[in-house]
What does this fold into?
Amino acid sequence: MRDCSTALIWFDAEFTTLALERARLLQVAMIITDAELRRLGPPDSDLCLTIRLPPRARVSPWVRAELPDLIRAARGAAAVTEAEADRRLVRAVRGALGPIPADIERRPVLAGNSVHTDWWLIRRFLPRFEACLHYRRLDVSTLKFEWRRLCPSFEFEKAKPSDLRRWYPGEWTATGRRHDALFDLHASIAELAFYRRHLLRRSVRVPTSRRNDA
It folds into this structure.
């Protein structure tokens, strides 16, 4: 049986409001890596799609003020439907990993910052893509909270392109800025690489009770 559970499906979405029960997708992006954060495909296999916004969909004041270009794009002719985005995400996953395992424990893991929010929207709007995913998720925000607790005077700066490129494990291909879904994915991968180096880089010691059980 194939096991894709070491693959990470990096996913980010921009949406109309933080009130998720009313939110609509504006943009989705995906990068697929292995457990060492190496792309499982060339940079042009990264996916970034603008999602068509219904004419009467409500948009929060913050989104209107901060993401006007994205809103215009979501109402333009080049935007795709949620169903088309769902199909293209699944096609990209299968192209990188092959057939999706029937066993949910062998499927790839969804990863990103505050990824529970993205998963909630995936379940609403991208059901075929959701069916490709493991039941566990890798949320970089968990490590962010631990880092802030241990090192409150030194925060990983997503606003510094030089730092992002320094820590990104591979070729940086994002061209946007924060709150562009593909840019934010690159930043999340770089952030995890940073935490792995500074927060998680310790020799692994098996607890005594586990060694005795063996």
Residues 106 and 206 are 25 Å apart (CA to CA). The mean pLDDT is 90. The beta strands are 8-15, 25-33, 47-50, 109-112, 137-139. The domain at 8-203 is CATH 3.30.420.10 (Nucleotidyltransferase; domain 5).
